[in-house]
């Protein structure tokens, strides 16, 4: 395009020199044609901008993260003017288009249309625009180019991905649940002689030192029925590119944990802040779809801060009666540190799933586990941290 402008300018200067030295009808005609050419190009671009239409269609209104859905669009010219040099640019931050690129240039003859059908994949849970983001138009002589935002964008409502896993990162969920049972069960002073196969963690070493006989402590503690899953709904950041990946991974992780508990018939309850603390019973595998749909509608916001979360948890005795807690967070502050301290004082083993690139300071907390997950991790392949 720059080359064409240089050529036009050189020709125009040549025409000016020609009419200055020689004149004549041909020379003046050449000069006028070159002078009016930019105005004609600008008028053409204005006409295309006003007359050109785009139609888009998504196979379904509600889609799921990483699930390809059918997407089609049509470029339409309903007028007796040929449209040349048309390009469409797609939204690429939160979604991707398969088999099509932004580099394709379309030309529409009068009263024609071009239709394209492909697959579209949404990357994050949430509500955002997808499909064609902007249109780029170039005139016939390639002197000018204009870009403008598409006025008829599609808005997608994207649900989180439901992933069935047995581990998060390097942590086996079965080990996390088993560890909580060991920490939570109360040990009686009674003991019996050690039998091969007994859990070595229950050996009474003090009694062994005194008698020289291995003894196993008897477990008489009452077993708690539910595991608590606390999901953080605090919105970190103000830009979509900041909070969408984190919120998507928070819900994806919470669903993965709850799905594991459901598949293994482990009684559990999920807690999260909306206007107040909401408690959801984790459904059995046969009815898990109901739980998933409710979780998909969770909203994040700046009002759901960790101070409010701390106060709400402190008012829920059922959380402290749980056997353990999965705490799924996207940020760390003094309120979350205080919350973890309260859980430990109540002898609750906590597994912290931290969604972020930083590392929370857990130096003062000895009876908890940490799983670091990047907002861009694939949970089926481990966190890689």
Sequence-ordered SSE layout with sheet pairings:
Blueprint (H helix, E strand, L loop, with lengths): L1 H20 L3 H27 L1 E6 L3 E3 L4 E9 L5 E8 L4 E3 L8 E3 L3 E11 L3 E5 L1 E7 L6 E5 L4 E6 L7 E2 L2 E2 H12 L2 E7 L11 H7 L3 E5 L7 E5 L8 H24 L4 E6 L3 E5 L6 H9 L9 H9 L2 H4 L3 E6 L4 H12 L3 E7 L12 E6 L12
Parallel strand pairs: 2-11, 16-17, 16-19, 19-20, 20-21
Antiparallel strand pairs: 1-3, 3-7, 4-6, 4-9, 5-7, 8-11, 9-10, 12-13, 14-15, 17-18
Estimated structural class: alpha/beta
Q: Count of helices?
A: 9
> How large a portion of the residues is in β-strands, by DSSP E?
25-35%
What summary fits the major beta sheet? 6 strands, mixed
**Alpha carbon gap, first and last residue:** 47 Å
Instruction: Note poorly predicted spans.
Output: 182-189, 220-224
Shape: elongated
For the record, the count of structural domains works out to 4
The average pLDDT value, as a whole number, equals 86
CATH architecture of the largest domain: 3-Layer(aba) Sandwich
In the CATH hierarchy, the third-tier topology of the largest domain is known as Rossmann fold
CATH class of the largest domain: Alpha Beta
Strand order of the largest sheet: 18-17-16-19-20-21
State the gist of this model:
This protein has 385 residues and is an alpha/beta fold. 32% of the residues lie in helices and 30% in strands.
């Amino acid at each position: 395009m720059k080359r064409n402008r240089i050529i036009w300018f050189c020709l125009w200067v040549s025409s000016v020199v020609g009419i200055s030295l020689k004149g004549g009808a041909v020379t003046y005609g050449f000069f006028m044609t070159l002078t009016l050419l930019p105005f004609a190009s600008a008028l053409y671009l204005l006409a295309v901008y006003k007359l050109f239409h785009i139609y888009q269609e998504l196979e379904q209104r509600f889609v799921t993260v990483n699930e390809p859905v059918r997407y089609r669009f049509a470029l339409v010219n309903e007028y007796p003017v040929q449209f040349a040099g048309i390009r469409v640019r797609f939204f690429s931050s939160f979604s991707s288009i398969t088999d099509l690129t932004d580099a394709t240039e379309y030309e529409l003859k009068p009263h024609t249309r071009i239709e394209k059908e492909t697959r579209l994949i949404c990357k994050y849970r949430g509500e955002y625009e997808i499909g064609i983001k902007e249109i780029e138009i170039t005139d016939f002589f390639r002197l000018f180019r204009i870009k403008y935002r598409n006025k008829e964008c599609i808005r997608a409502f994207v649900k989180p991905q439901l992933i069935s896993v047995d581990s998060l990162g390097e942590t086996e969920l079965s080990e996390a649940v088993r560890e909580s049972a060991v920490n939570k069960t109360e040990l009686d002073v009674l003991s019996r002689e050690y039998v091969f196969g007994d859990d070595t963690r229950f050996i009474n070493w003090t009694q062994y030192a005194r008698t020289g006989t291995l003894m196993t402590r008897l477990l008489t503690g009452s077993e708690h029925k539910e595991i608590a899953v606390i999901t953080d709904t605090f919105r970190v950041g103000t830009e979509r590119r900041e909070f969408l990946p984190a919120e998507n991974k928070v819900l994806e992780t919470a669903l993965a944990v709850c799905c594991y508990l459901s598949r293994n018939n482990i009684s559990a309850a999920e807690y999260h802040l909306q206007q107040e603390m909401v408690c959801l019973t984790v459904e059995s595998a046969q009815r898990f779809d109901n739980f998933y749909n409710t979780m998909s509608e969770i909203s994040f916001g700046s009002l759901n801060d960790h101070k409010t979360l701390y106060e709400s948890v402190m008012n829920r005795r059922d959380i402290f009666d749980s056997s353990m807690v999965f705490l799924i967070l996207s940020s760390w502050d003094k309120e979350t540190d205080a919350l973890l301290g309260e859980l430990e004082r109540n002898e609750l083993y906590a597994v912290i799933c931290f969604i972020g690139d930083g590392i929370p300071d857990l130096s003062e907390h000895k009876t908890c586990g940490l799983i670091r997950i990047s907002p861009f991790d694939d949970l089926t392949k481990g966190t890689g941290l």
